[in-house]
Specification:
Layout (H helix, E strand, L loop, with lengths): L16 H10 L18 H6 L1 H7 L7 H13 L3 H20 L7
């Protein structure tokens, strides 16, 4: 089976009993609802750091065609400095460790 990733965003359909049962039964690395740290910049370096940098410039102008938008995003992502990506990833682990210590509570 192809690798799958489900990004749970608290949509009601994601929390439905049938949806949860299907995911639990069909995916080996399934995370229960209480495992998700929803909308947490502390626990999501991709969305809140790496993706945000090119998004600022790409979304500054309106894109009418999806292919144009996709091309702009890909171009900006390939131009991200590797030292920036390394820095973000290094800062990510201590945040996750702090979240584990506080049992999912807010961290500063």
């Amino acid at each position: 089976m192809k690798e799958q990733l489900n990004a749970y965003d608290r949509a009601s359909c994601h929390g439905a009993v049938k949806t949860q049962a299907f995911l639990r039964d069909n995916f080996l690395d399934y995370w229960e609802l209480n495992m998700w740290l929803h909308s947490s910049p502390d626990a999501n370096c991709l969305d809140y750091s790496i993706q945000a940098r090119p998004e600022k410039t790409v979304c500054a102008t309106s894109q009418r065609i999806v292919h144009s938008l996709e091309a702009s995003v890909k171009k900006k992502l390939t131009k991200l400095e590797s030292n920036y990506i390394v820095k973000v990833c290094k800062e990510f682990r201590p945040c996750i460790e702090a979240i584990i210590i506080t049992q999912g509570s807010h961290i500063d």
